Amino acid sequence: MQNLGVAIIGSGSALPATSVDNQALSEVVETSDEWIITRTGISQRQLALPTESLSGLATIAGNQALAAAGLEASDIDLILLATSTPDDLFGSACQVQAKLGATKAVAFDLTAACSGFLFGLVTAAQYIRTGVYQNVLLIGADILSRWVDWEDRRTCVLFGDGAGAVVLQANKSDRLLGFSLKSDGTQNHYLNLAYNPSAQELIPGVSVAKGTYMPITMNGKEVYRFAVQRVPEVIDKALFQANLSVDQIDWLLLHQANQRILNAVAQRLNIPEHKVISNVAHYGNTSAASIPLALDEVVRQGKIKPNDIIATSGFGAGLTWGAAIFQWGR
């Protein structure tokens, strides 16, 4: 009988070498270590140099995840790259496929901003559950520092760069226990990286638009309000689908946007602090990379054990949000 369940069997991550702490940022923009930590919990972030690429970081994370899963690149059927900041606007997944040497794999990008990894997880699972693919490499990677306005102290202090990856594999028992995905485009204006319309006259009377983008803009209060309200709801929905209660969760793994959001969501769900995974202090908001980065860190620390039940939720631009409940390992 075919294995139509899904297991998450390995993780990996990659970070740029350059670290910038709050003190250093206060020399760039009017802010302070205390101001940033009080509002966000972030004390430093890793930033990619101009010579570093999104596909390079994604490849390192992917290789680590393959090694952890005990697989070769040639075993992979599908590579999903969740990113909003590709090296190439047409997509960077194929570059990653080439760098990994995953000659058998089909590869494409998936964009859902800070929810990207979670949306990718659910997408990957559908390919496995339908029997189409056996082994899927899911990578969440972003270099948001490319798109930050370094004079806007409300946003520039928040973001960092990085990549995280997991391998999903067909399995006899289904370890993805439940999920729920949501979108609300009416709130898009609260957080975006918008197209910047500027015209170029092609011939008299005919103008075309030039392809450029504006920096990230965000209404922090509204995004905070949205996350604190919607994330507990969507986790409840996923738990209901999984036929589990909150107290059966071993770990709460949220998109690492802001420590205050993590605390508020945990409080609303009545999840104790020792079950909440957090590394936002060290890396800031790494968008689609944040969930797999944090996951890989605690897996390598030996905190997450096989069969542990993890409730994860991503939320961000779109606006998009979602939750998934899964058991770690085969």
Features:
330 residues, alpha+beta, Peroxisomal Thiolase, Chain A, domain 1, 5-stranded mixed beta sheet, 4-stranded mixed beta sheet, 10 helices
Q: How is this structure best described in words?
A:
The protein is α+β, with helices and mostly antiparallel strands and 330 residues long. It folds into two domains: 5-176, Peroxisomal Thiolase, Chain A, domain 1 (3-Layer(aba) Sandwich); 177-186 and 217-328, Peroxisomal Thiolase, Chain A, domain 1. It is built from ten helices and 15 strands. The chain has helices spanning 22-25, 33-40, 54-69, 93-100, 116-129, 153-156, 220-242, 259-269, 280-283, 290-300; strands at residues 5-14, 18-21, 44-47, 78-82, 106-110, 135-143, 161-171, 176-183, 191-192, 198-203, 206-210, 217-218, 251-254, 309-316, 320-327. The strands form five sheets. It has a five-stranded mixed sheet, with helices on both faces. A four-stranded mixed sheet has the order 8-15-14-13, sandwiched between helices. β10 (198-203) and β11 form a beta hairpin. The longest helix is centred in the last third of the chain and has 23 residues, at 220-242. The chain is globular. The two termini are 17 Å apart. The model has no long low-confidence stretch (mean pLDDT 96). It comes from Cylindrospermum stagnale PCC 7417. Belongs to the thiolase-like superfamily. FabH family. Its main location: cytoplasm. Homodimer. Residues 256-260 are annotated as: ACP-binding.
